[in-house]
Amino acid sequence: MRGFTILWLGQVLSLLGSAMTWFSFTLWAWRTTGSATALSTVSFFAFLPSVLLAPIAGTFVDRWNRKLVMMLSDAATALGTLTVLILYTTNHLQLWHIYIVSILAGFFTAFQYPAFTAAMTTMLPKKQYTRAGGMLGLSTALSGILAPVFAAALLGVIDMSGIMVIDLITFLAAFATLAWIDVPQPLRSKVGWESRGSIWQETQFGFRYIRERPNLLGLVALFGAANTFLAIGATLIAPLVLGKTGENASALASVQSVGAIGGVVGGGLLSLWGGPRRRIHGVLLGGIGACLLGIVSLGLGRAILVWSIGSFFFSFFEPFVEGGNLAIWQAKVEADVQGRVFSARRLLVQIPYLIGILIAGPLAEWWNIPSVLILAGIGGALVFVFGYASRAIHDAEILLPDLQNIPE
């Protein structure tokens, strides 16, 4: 796992810088507008292009060199941060600028995500997939712990411009580690040869591949249904804390950092343990735990301590859900078509997530944030419980064979 570990370390640094920047963007947007809808709109624009462009991006990822795709995506995202830095330091930054940069960042994420996940398949043996998924969750959680604390402490010293400079430096570090390592291209499989055609035909292939495999289609349906509720929970944490504490940046940093500690603990446990033998148990039980112990606790809380506990469990179970699900797909889908298949899956499961982000703000302003969170947590838990009632989902690992062109 040497090459992947080097890549992972670079991503930890990059995620830390990006998370610090987006924390400062969140505070800036809230202080500028005081609107939960404004915050959810920023998230919406960041996710929209990464979701809508995923299928066509996956087609090019399967055609192009995956390492080069990741390098170009990193460089373009850094350029967006640099643009915001220039606008901010010249006193020209407006909310719509953040929206545009969010869209551009989402555009390049559409290429980065399938390239990265498909590259993992060729860099690692199958037995390490779940462990690597835990490391990915761990990297996100580490940035979540440190970024709010660092950003809240540094904003008063170096301002938002200094935060963005740090972000650009971490991009350079991630770019350098990616340039250093080797990312093998996949061997061409029979399915890969048969799927070749025009751009439009290859883009459609990912959806057709999933449709023809009921077990994969069941997993897509499960996450599509659950993601609406999970998105509401994730989107409303910041406005919940800021609204209840009088825009206290330190309070938000504390809640987010404790949540990230939960992600570190969960990701670290999964990395060391490797997860349950049947990965689907980690997915379903983790989803139930994230919704009931995480989102519902956030809604019931009235103080920083309870919000922190809810945030902890929301993040603790995420590596088990995401890592287990990704490992199943990596083992069941031919490596040379994973760009298209994973991108098609991303579109199908993230459209409901986008809907959740979009409706979270208006729902919170029409009703109230705690009530919306409680109902979202209960709804999400029921979706994962249904996964145990569906044989197509519960027995997906048994009914679908592992692929032969993926290293053991």
Q: Fraction of residues in helices?
A: over 70%
Number of strands: 0
Low-confidence stretches: 404-408
Q: Radius of gyration from the CA trace?
A: 20 Å
What is the molecular shape?
globular
What report would you give on this structure?
With 408 residues, the protein is an all-alpha fold. It has a single domain (2-178, 206-399), classed as Growth Hormone, Chain: A, CATH 1.20.1250.20. Helix content is 85%, strand content 0%. It has helices at residues 2-33, 36-52, 54-63, 66-89, 95-123, 129-180, 190-194, 199-211, 214-244, 249-273, 279-300, 304-316, 318-332, 338-366, 369-389, 391-394, 396-399. α1 runs antiparallel to α5, α3 (54-63) crosses α5 (95-123) and α3 packs across α8. The two termini are 13 Å apart.
Give a summary of the structure in a few sentences.
With 408 residues, the chain is mostly helical. 85% of the residues lie in helices and 0% in strands. It is built from 17 helices and no strands.
Write the layout of secondary structure elements.
Elements (H helix, E strand, L loop, with lengths): L1 H32 L2 H17 L1 H10 L2 H24 L5 H29 L5 H52 L9 H5 L4 H13 L2 H31 L4 H25 L5 H22 L3 H13 L1 H15 L5 H29 L2 H21 L1 H4 L1 H4 L9
